[in-house]
Structure formats: structure tokens, C-alpha cells
Amino acid sequence: MRRALLVIDMLNDFMDPAGALYCGDEARRIIPVVKALITRFVAENQPVIYLRDAHAEDDREFKLFARHAVKDSWGSRIIPELQPTAEALVVDKARFSGFYGNRLAEILEAARTEEVWISGVCTSICVMDTAGDSRNRDYAVVIPVDAVADFDPQAHEMALKRMLRVYGAKLATARELLGGEAPSAPSSTKGYT
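Above: the chain sequence. Below: its structure as C-alpha cells.
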């Protein structure tokens, strides 16, 4: 099966304590798990696509959230621990869904993708909206639950439930999905798997 891994907003502004919208220490715990997923997808010659918030200076989203991830700023850079490999693609986005206003749909279509694995932050915002748009395009969706995080634990749980029940996403730990070849990270599966 042709799969693609989406790595959403693993950026300084979300993942670094000095970032404008730091998601917290819980979010930092997913870094080794996301790295293991990237390693596996690269080894299997499956696409790895980094989705990166890259907002204009006057983006209207800043009425909802603090000014963050301005295009070409430190805050919009991918964290050092997950620097893209030569094989990876980086696609900028300026809205919650990874499909909005960019070429993600064309990339997935050209790769003949059947299944989309989604990792990164924030579970209740960009991860969930990208999962919904993936299902709207008839992709099977997989959420490695220990490779997604949110600054709001209740919103995180709600998003996992919605992705399971509404989008039909498969939820499991990366270790379960990769056959034991991933580090353990604290996660809450609360009966979703």
C-alpha cells in the first residue's frame, strides 16, 4: 500500500519553550516517536511531507491565536531534532488544514497515495483538520497517537475521538503500527485502539 507521512508544525514556535505558542513538555515527548516514523518511511521509500505554518505578517489568524510562525522567521523553522532529510518535502501552509492553498493534494496524488499517516501538533487543530480533509479525498487515515500532541489535553482527547468516530481513522501507538520498532512515548489511547 502506498502511504505518506505528514509531519505537521513541528516548528520552533510550537515545540521550543521560547516559542510563541509552545505546546508544552508533553508535546516534546513525541519528538523521538515522530523521528522513528520518519526513519521508517524513508527506509521504505514512502513520502515524508513536512507541513509548515508560514503566515504573512498580517495574517488574520492572529486574531484567534498569538502571532506565530511568520514565514521565514525562527518560529516557522522546523525544530533541529527533525530536520528534513534530502528525500522529504516541505510544504508551507497558512491555515489549519494542510491541504488549504498549497500543493499537498497534487503531491499525494502524484505519489499514488492510498493511506495518510498524520503526526505533529496540534491534535485538535491542524492534525484534525488535515485528517478530515484527507478523508474528504478518500485517503485512509492513520493517527499514531503517541506522535500527536496538543496544548489542551481535553481538546486532544476530543480530537482523537472525532478522528476515530467521524473520519474512521485508525488510532494506535507507533510501536503497534511499526511492529515494535519505535520508542515508547506517553500517550492516551483510552480505548480508541
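The chain has seven helices and seven strands.
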